[in-house]
Amino acid sequence: MKSKKYRAAAKDQDCSLNIAGVCNYDNSTTVLAHFPSESNGMGTKSSDLSAGDACSECHRTIDQRGSCPEFDDNADFYLRRAQTRTLLNRLSQAVIIVK
Fold first, then answer.
1. CA-based nearest residue to 9, from 60, 57, 51
2. Degrees (nearest 5) of the Cα angle 31, 56, 51?
3. In Å, how far from its chain's centre is CA 87?
4. Distance in angstroms (rounded) separating the CA atoms of residues 73 and 58
5. Mind spelling out the 3-state secondary structure of the chain?
6. Residues 6+ apart with CB under 8 A from 15
7. Within 13 Å and on the Cβ side, how many CA atoms surround 81?
8. What residues are paired with 41 via a beta bridge?
């Protein structure tokens, strides 16, 4: 799934990753960061639903695996938490509507 509205909704949001010792807490740098999933491959991004709002530093960290032991040791926790936080945020923004 690709959605310009879903991606644009990341603008000025709080970082949902909040990687300890990494996050800059600067929501002016927040973008939708795509996470590894079964839908991505060479040159193909994951679905927008497999993503989370990320500040520039957290985004850099998830893209450069192996550079941050805190993230590498706890990647599943950080990615799942960020994805859930982002989905809940989009529900509260009415970008996603559940009937």
1. 51
2. 40
3. 10
4. 15
5. CCCHHHHHCCCCCCCCCCCCCCCCCCHHHCEEEECCCCCCECCECCCCCCEEEECHHHHHHHHCCCCCHHHHHCHHHHHHHHHHHHHHHHHHCCCCCCC
6. 23, 24, 25, 27, 30, 53, 54, 55, 58
7. 12
8. 44
The token pair at 13 is 């949001």
pLDDT band for position 66 (cuts 50, 70, 90): confident
**CA end-to-end span of the chain, whole Å?**
19
- What is the pLDDT of the chain when averaged over all its residues? 92
Residue 59 makes CB contacts below 8 A (sequence gap 6+) with 17, 31, 33
Nearest-10 Cα torsion for 10, 15, 56, 78: -120
